[in-house]
Amino acid sequence: MTKNTREIFVTGGAGFIGSAFIRLLLDETADCKVTNFDALTYAGNLDNLEGLDAARHRFVHGNIADAEAVHTALGENTHAIVNFAAESHVDRSIANAAEFLRTNITGTQVLLDAVRARGVKRFIQVSTDEVMGSLPENEDAFFTEESPFAPNSPYAASKAAAEHLVRAAHHTFGLDTVVTRCGNNYGPRQFPEKFLPLAISNALKDESIPVYGDGGNVRDWIYVDDHCRAILLALEKGRPGAVYNVGARNEHHNIDVVGSLLNTLGKPRSLIRFVKDRPGHDRRYAIDPLLIECELGWRPRETWETGLQKTIQWYQQNSRWLERTRSGAYKDYYRKQYGTEVAAT
Ligand code: NAD
Ligand code: DAU
Questions:
Q1: The domain made up of 6-186+221-246 is a member of CATH 3.40.50.720
Q2: Which atom of ligand 1 lies closest to the CA of 48?
Q3: Cβ(245)–Cβ(143) under 8 Å?
Q4: Distance 224 CA to ligand 2 centre (A)
Q5: Which pLDDT value is given to residue 276?
Q6: pLDDT at residue 1 above 70?
Q7: What is the CA radius of gyration of the chain?
Q8: Are 315 and 197 in contact (CB under 8 A)?
Q9: 158, 212, 272, 287: which to mutate for ligand 2, most atoms within 8 A of CB?
Q10: Is the dihedral of CA 232, 228, 333, 326 positive or negative?
Q11: pLDDT digit string (tens) for 117-170?
């Protein structure tokens, strides 16, 4: 490391996307080192950091809503903060929104204050398409950067509030901020409360797969490393104050996602179990990624077929990771959410 080394402060880097981003950043840049600041909630997992170069990655256990902890952990010359830290699961926000407000809203403001106080050059907010609500089905409608905010779940509302705070910090204090808004990520190391890893892990154990409502909801799926490449481009070349939608033009009905998965695994469709719908369930997300494609030259590298294949293989080959995440508190969550026991490990 030289004196030109850039210090990147990544929050939430022990989670699914944050850990993938740190891997990519260390692989694809030679001049960066990372402070990974994470509260290790139920979704944070030190196993996700296995194999990272210790000379370029420093883990700090801390909460983004705790200003003193953030200030203590920030280096003298932090180049950028990339904020992944969040409560990220819609169903949990419906059960109890309190932590979503503290982490997603207060936490983001604490980080923005720190950027200002400590002269951090750039702030990247990892946001979500859910801030724009739900699109009509069977219509040629897509989310663009101009789409109005219409968050429908407490999770989405908290992420929308965070985006407003980022916008205000740029407008009022001139902070150099960039927001990325992505759709549904899939890939290795995703906590199995989310639909795809839940479906994969249940199918691997011949356990039924809960599908909400009629299974006709549409999500726009993106392989996690493609999302991370978009965030890296936003960090390196994003326009100050910009918002970029990130999507791989890969819409699928939930029922078809499970169908593809069962086909690939050679498991029967009888594993599908339709269950009570999620309250306020958004019907369709679909992203128009034209801006990031034209302005930053971003393109996804994985197709749905290659990405799904890689993802399934990873879960098949990492049964220890899966067993550990499905033990303990996960069992209580699963029982409350689905009214059945999670398959024995
Ligand atoms: P995740 O739930 O897997 O990980 C979140 C991480 O943040 C965990 O490591 C957790 O310990 C940490 N964390 C939570 N509260 C914290 C706090 N107060 N202080 C410090 N760390 C804290 O989430 P993910 O799926 O990796 O999502 C990462 C980010 O990307 C989130 O901001 C989410 O809103 C956004 N996003 C996710 C998706 C998706 O499909 N998963 C899509 C678009 C945007
Ligand atoms: O669009 C981006 C968002 O994608 C991110 O901001 C969120 O952090 C991320 O969790 C995700 O939100 P969703 O609510 O779309 O993801 P989830 O995996 O919870 O659900 C995907 C779809 O599958 C959704 O239509 C609900 C449905 N579903 C989900 C679960 C957990 C089921 O049918 N059964 C289930 O058991």
A1: yes
A2: 9
A3: yes
A4: 15
A5: 98
A6: no
A7: 19
A8: yes
A9: 212
A10: negative
A11: 999 999 999 999 999 999 999 778 999 999 999 999 999 999 999 999 999 999
Measure the CA–CA gap between 81 and 115, rounded to whole angstroms.
8
Quote the CA–CA distance of 231 and 25 in Å, as a whole number. 10
Alpha carbons 250 and 92: distance in angstroms, whole number: 26
Position 199 confidence tier, pLDDT thresholds 50, 70, 90: very high
Please give the pLDDT value at position 4.
Answer: 86
CA of 12 to the centre of ligand 1 (A): 6
Q: Find the helix packing angle between 154-173 and 108-118, rounded to 10°.
A: 20
* Nearest Cα to Cα of residue 191 among 339, 328, 285, 81: 328
Yes or no: say if 15 and 24 are a contact pair by the CB < 8 Å rule.
no
pLDDT tens-digit map of 61-102: 999 999 999 999 998 899 999 999 999 999 999 999 999 999
According to DSSP H, which parts of 287-341 are helical?
Answer: 290-296, 304-317, 319-325, 329-338
Residues serving a catalytic function are 129-130, 155
The pair of structure tokens assigned to 335 is 């029982």
Single-letter residue type at 280: G
Say how many Å lie between the CA of residue 109 and the centre of ligand 2: 26
Could you tell me the pTM of the whole model?
A: 0.98
pLDDT in tens, 262-289: 999 999 999 999 999 999 999 999 999 9
Is residue 58 within 8 A of residue 26, CB to CB? The reply is no
- Residue 50 DSSP class: T
Q: Which of 66, 88, 143, 219 to mutate to test the pocket of ligand 1 (most atoms within 8 A of CB)?
A: 88
